[in-house]
Amino acid sequence: MQKKIKVGFMYSENDGISPHDSLVTGWPTGITYASIIEGIMSEGGMPYNLKWDDVGDNLKVSRMHNLSNPEIIRNASIDYLDVLCFMGFGNVLEVRENDKDLCKVIRNLEESGIVPTINPSKTVLNAREGKKRYLVDLFENGISVPDTYIVDSLSGVEDISSELVDKYGGYVTKPLNGFGGFGVEKFPGGDLESVKDILSKDGEIIVQGYVNNIQETGERSVFIFGDDIKYTVLKKSSGFKTNVTGNISGVSRSLVDCTSAERKLAYEAKELIAPEALIARADLIGDRDNPYVGELTLSSIGLHTAVFGNGRNLSVEGYIKLIENLVR
User: Fold this and answer.
1) Residue 292, SS3?
2) Do 69 and 51 touch, CB atoms closer than 8 A?
3) What architecture is the 145-209 domain classified under in CATH?
4) What is the largest CA-CA distance in the chain?
């Protein structure tokens, strides 16, 4: 990496301190973001942290943490940075509550073109505004995904439930705006009150056929950087109950090779939904030689960097290549 490229990392979970200097604040509390930042630093980059609520309508940043030195930069234009990386948006409840404000910041970045971003601001804005509607787009365009519908009432759920039970043996419901397993229920046997609560707050809900072999086959997260699949992580747990892993304990993660069917499906999903995306994570479920798309993540992408241990961090390598391409 070229020396002294100023790389901004947008995340709000910044209560940590540098592992190298206790006076340096603004570091993320999670290992994934921290490993990316350390990797950028080791290659000569200059990382900074921005919180979402520190960015004003004029794209002035009230506070920006230098993650290399004990320095806080105040009231600087966001184009002080050479590139901006969208990382975390907060926990799921914060995202649901602050969604309009988050989208406003991203829209301002997209309209101004003031600083290049990863992912492109267009990609992230479409993902935040469209939420999980892309699952229906995949389904309606013949991409392999469990039968997926969006309904706006409990009666709508009931109308298609028997069809999905007959075909899949069950179905799952989940909010359009959520992640980490938030609000996901599997039927028969799920919590109907949770469905009612999501409908009352959001006005609509996703209903999708249940893939019943996830405990055996696990979930495969396929990470695409640019045009290349950099790595694939297999997640397995006996605690899986729905079409997503969720934030449950006891999940094992390991690096695996993509099957040809998984590779093909991951690329197809990305190209249909966001061909311009620089990073995408396709979570695949079902048989490895005949998979389904469980989810396609284009913003706030969990990168599972712990699987690399002390070896090559392929995620860092992917980020460095993208950054270098943007700031040539």
Assistant:
1) strand
2) no
3) 2-Layer Sandwich (3.30)
4) 61
pLDDT tens per residue across span 119-160: 999 999 999 999 999 999 999 999 999 999 999 999 999 999
User: Would you call 128 helix, strand, or coil by DSSP?
Assistant: helix
**In angstroms, what CA-CA distances link 227 with 37, 271, 307?**
23, 10, 22
Second-level CATH architecture of 213-307 = 2-Layer Sandwich (3.30)
Q: Looking at the domain that runs over 6-119+316-326, which CATH code has it been given? A: 3.40.50.20
Burial string for 73-84 (b: 16+ CB within 10 Å, else e) reads: eeeeebeebbbb
> Burial, 160: exposed, middle or buried (Cβ in 10 Å; 0-12, 13-18, 19+)?
middle
pTM above threshold 0.85? yes
Residue 111 has pLDDT above 90, yes or no: yes
Digit-coded pLDDT (tens) for 81-108: 999 999 988 777 777 888 888 999 999 9
In terms of pLDDT, which residue wins out, 45 or 216? 45
Average pLDDT for the chain = 93
Dihedral (CA of 317, 322, 323, 327) sign: positive
285 membership: H or E segment, kind and range: strand 279-287
Domain assignments of the chain as residue spans, ordered by start = 6-119+316-326, 145-209, 213-307
Distance, CA of 134 to CA of 126 (rounded, Å) = 10
